[in-house]
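Protocol step 6 of 9: fold each sequence in the batch and record its structure tokens directly after the sequence line. For illustration, a two-sequence batch is reproduced in full.

Sequence one:
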Amino acid sequence: MTSASTKLLSNLRAASTHLRATDADELANTVDDLLTPNGWRNLRTAVEADAMGRQLTEMADLKKRLAQFGTQKGYSPFSGGDSFSISIGKVAHDRYKRKWAKSDSSSTTDVIDAMTAFITGEFSPADYPRRAKGTGAATYINLRMTDEFKQLFDDAAKLREAELGYVTTIGHVVKAYLAEKYDKPAE
């Protein structure tokens, strides 16, 4: 047993003794339960369940905030705001432009769809093929985006970090969404 483990065990036993001396038997029993062989496992299960509950609550809050964007008359997450660019390979961009020309989609609607699907948890970006540095030309999808919508995305990215295994970016989500929407072979 390490010295940190020994100190933790000693402190928990001392806490239990102190709690009993102050007539806080229920709290002392809880500490004693932690010291049983299954105590730590039970605590871990409770902590994980609590974290899951908080995540579900935060996700519901994100969905509510997103819904508020749609209820504001004439509001678009891209009306006003600062200029924002997403770097994308020229070959892929040209391919998407051809698809946009043949459909009712556009770069703006696809960016909104990608971000909305990510924020609501309906879309999880798979790793998309990255261009090796110095290979192929890059171009940009340029648009304006409000700070509120960017913040909503950032909050969702932080919330979903454990699920994804990394903090993602708007560019990553959009490129993965476009690749999944347009580059998948027909079934």
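Sequence two, same batch, same settings:
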Amino acid sequence: MVKEIYQDFVNGMKTLEDIQALGENHLNPLIDRAAFHIGEIHRKAEYSFENLNEFSEIKNFLEKTVDQLLTNYTLNTHGAHQVLFQKKYESMSLEKWNKLLSVLPISLHIVKIFKFIGTQNILLSDKGITFRGLIKTDQNITKFRELVYVASRKLLKEESILTYKIENLDDERMCWLELNIDMQHDKNLSFCVDFREEFGVWLGFSNIFKGYRITPEQAKELPRHLVIEIDEKLNINKHYRVPDRYTGTIKDQEMLHFSFLFRPVSIIIPKKGRVYSKSTLDNIRDTGSGFGQQEVENRIKSSFRYIDFFSLINQS
């Protein structure tokens, strides 16, 4: 519904622009007033969807549903003596609630695989879900890769990803394990790399890419893993270690690292990217969502090629 409202708003504004282009100057005040009222309708419609605080009964029901899922998980958790919850729902839109309710059961299923000891911490927000707790270092988490991969594919279908982080302690018998489910993908935003000068094309990825950039110094510390490199000619190359040329002196290249538990993946892009609103790219023609070596047409009007990262990883 939100997407339909936004599209109607865009179409309405474009129609007014067409009328203004074809009409005479004396119509401009009327067109400006119409544009203002269309904008107000769009703003108020978005507000009603994004601010559930105005709909207390719906918000309470959604919170109780989440609490019930967490309670069931706590009662079935073996090993952890205490589970602490931190919930940040203040800025949760209806769309985010829908994603949380889809992602949370899958996430809890994954976390049950690991045997946390002591106190376990769970943080829920519009950005995603974080699980943190102690595990024994003799627990080989890599043996769970196959199970995690199956569940992670379900998360990818919800346009969410699972990454992990290990923190060693002075007591070598234990370590911190942090699992993060990132739900920040936004269909209205795109992490874009500008190739207009070379190929007349913008290359677009999920907006979550912004949070996974690493420095050459950090890249140098990574163990052997899959590295996908997009070169300056948009050719795709695969490596199983970070290329030495990247960890040396670089100017424009940028590297993103995803610490997936089932298989870490890095992506090297030839230029630095930034996040743009899709509305600013309305006049750019989408040429498709493939990741293969497709020919890019060099047009006067820039093209936009979006790479569906979630489908790409799910198929790998």
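Proceed to step 7 once all outputs are recorded. Observation for sequence two: The first strand starts at residue 80 and ends at 88.
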